[in-house]
Amino acid sequence: MEPLTRIQREARPESMLINMGPSHPAMHGTLRIMLELDAEKILNAECEIGYLHRGFEKTCENKTYFNLLIYTDRLNYVSPLINNLGYVMTVEKMMGVTAPERAQLIRVLMSELSRVSDHLTCLAAMAMENGAFTVFLYMMKAREFIWDVIEFTTGARMTTSYIRIGGVRADLHPDWRGSLATAVRETRKVLKDVSGLLDKNSIFLGRTRGVGVMSKEDALSYGWTGPCLRSTGIPYDVRKAHPYLVYDRLQFEVPVGECGDNYDRYSVRMREMEQSLRLLEQVAALIPDAAPLGGGPAIEPAEALARSRLQRADERVRLSPNLEGSEKERLPGLTAPDPLVGVPAKEDTYTTMEGLISHFLFFMSGKGIRPPKGDVYFSVEGGNGEVGFYIVSDGTDKPYRLHLRAPCFHIVSALEQLIKGRFVADVIPTFGSMNMIGGELDR
Amino acid sequence: MGQEILIEAIRAKLGPAVEGIADSYGDLVLILRPEAVRSALAALREMPFDYAVLLDLTCVDFAAGQGRLELVYHLYSLSRNVRLRLKASLPAADPAVETLVGLWKNAEWLEREVFDMFGVRFEGHPYLRRLLTYEGFEGHPLRKTYPWRLGQPRLPLKDDV
Questions:
Q1: pLDDT value for A232
Q2: What is the ipTM of this complex?
Q3: In a mutagenesis test of the A interface, which of B23, B27, B54, B58 is the best target, namely the one with the most A β-carbons within 10 Å?
């Protein structure tokens, strides 16, 4: 039988072919690397992807703009909020909607928290695979503090679906400042410890310095973006090049590397986390405290429903704890005023005829969010590069075509070149420093 | 380079390869003749346009009513900090276009994905093989004629590797 893959066809008869993955602890999910070996030396390599392909784009064509948001959580599952943001801002660009100031600040806060957690995860796994298990535990500890902040507000650690078209779902948790201060303090401490453990560690340097070197020209030719591109010395960052939200009003630097090897990718991510922590502090200072909810006793939802059958309700309704933060009084600061963009206030839905009608007009099939005909591309700076969405709308409530530009697709496509001619042991740090995320790579 | 000067320069350089020029939410869109895709993109990669990055490549199936596929290329110029979108229409029956392998290194995987999902043949591609699905998969899932939920035939277990 004719072998299927190029590497099998071209293999020299005396060399050994071996599979690394898809079930391999260092393959971060699912990637198969086929290696042609001469003892420890890699003569040729081929990557096979698609083991986590779930048909994201096809599914999106069959879901409404509102409903498909949850699928974007599952792309890059360590920084889901940035995926939410990329998708949501693409639709907003089509519809000409701008989120209110407070929502924009919250979005920046959430993006930067996600970026830190993304970098922490990548470096933790990379360090662990190189034998530094302590670093892994330290960074996972810091990530838990970051996820505490996210969980307080969004109610979930990973599958958040918090950033919505028009704004955000709910206001920040009442205690967010405390948890954020803890997270920033603890992450700083961990970054200092990790720097001490790795920066001059000869084992780590031996496996990263001069290994997996990418030139500027090749990085551009492969379409690299994000920390991996910046490690080669090119300071391209979507937040600076095409500022979105309030990034143009914030102070931060774009760290770059020198030679584009594994160590530079590690070091750029470390320095980027410091910048993100800086951004978090700036944004926290800019977000005003939420005004207390209006006075007067609030009535229970069941009672409000019963009363609304007899007369027009004008008392304040207490919402279920699941909806904390999305009270009617808070919504103007959180979502755009357009009733066909944001979910109508629940208080109105439950107690007034008009509210119920607007609820139906939002959720009924064929109604709701319907961007005008056309196509649009928009991108945000994700954890490992430019997360771009290309959406073609035919004017209905479902996208005609939705395409994700996944940053690590382009990065992983360069893996074959980076490991050719190196040793088997070099695959691990090189692959680890790329931050391959299966959900986003395979879609 | 202002927008008008840029369009003038592109028209002068590419000549009849450009079928139309449009604007989509602030991004410049060029509609290319499909047979001129490779030469046009090669010219745009060089100075003075300097679109050095092939940001993305995808395809849209306009089968519903129009019977055509549309390739969508996104280019990015680092020096001028602008994006450019290029489109080329192909017939849905037997879509083929010249490959970009040799100009950009990520073209190899991008084109394999489009081949996998839409069945577009990239002529001159050294290794046109399915990327996200597997050998033995039937059909091209992102075509509009492919149903959302469709079972695939079971493949026999492989024992040769």
A1: 92
A2: 0.90
A3: B58
Q: What is the CA radius of gyration of chain A?
A: 24
Would the CB atoms of B58 and A390 count as touching at under 8 Å? yes
Helices and strands, counts by H and E, chain A: 20, 10
Antiparallel, parallel or unpaired: β A385-393 and A401-405: antiparallel
Secondary structure element (H or E) that encloses residue A18, with its range: strand A16-20
Q: Tabulate helix, strand, coil % of chain A (nearest 5).
A: 50, 10, 40
- Confirm whether B103 is domain-assigned: yes
* pLDDT the model gives residue A376: 92
The beta-carbon neighbor of A222 closest among B24, B74, B106 is B106
Judged against a pLDDT cut of 80, whether residue A313 lies above it is answered with no
Q: What is the pLDDT of residue B159?
A: 65
Question: Hey, what are B94's tokens?
Answer: 């037997």
| CATH number where B27 lies | 3.30.460.80
State the pTM of this model. Answer: 0.89
B1 Cβ neighbours under 8 A, 6+ residues apart? B9, B48, B80
> Which residue has 């530094």 as its token pair?
A132
The reported pLDDT for the residue numbered A321 is 76
pLDDT at A76: 86
Report the alpha-carbon distance of residue A411 to residue A422 in Å, rounded.
18
DSSP string of A364-421?
Answer: STT-S--PPSEEEEEEEEETTEEEEEEEEE-SSSS-SEEEEE-HHHHHHTTHHHHHTT
| Contact yes or no for A17/A11 (Cβ under 8 A) | yes
How does the average pLDDT of chain A come out, rounded?
88
Give chain B positions within 8 Å (CB) of A21.
none
Q: Does B152 touch chain A (CB under 8 A)?
A: no
Q: How many residues does chain A have?
A: 443
Segments making up each domain of chain A, as ranges:
68-289+371-442, 298-363
Q: What pLDDT was estimated at residue A277?
A: 93
Instruction: Tell me how close the Cα of B98 comes to any Cα of chain A, in angstroms.
Output: 18
- Residue A111's CB is within 10 A of a number of other CB atoms, namely 29
Superfamily of the domain at A68-289+371-442: Cytochrome-c3 Hydrogenase, chain B (1.10.645.10)
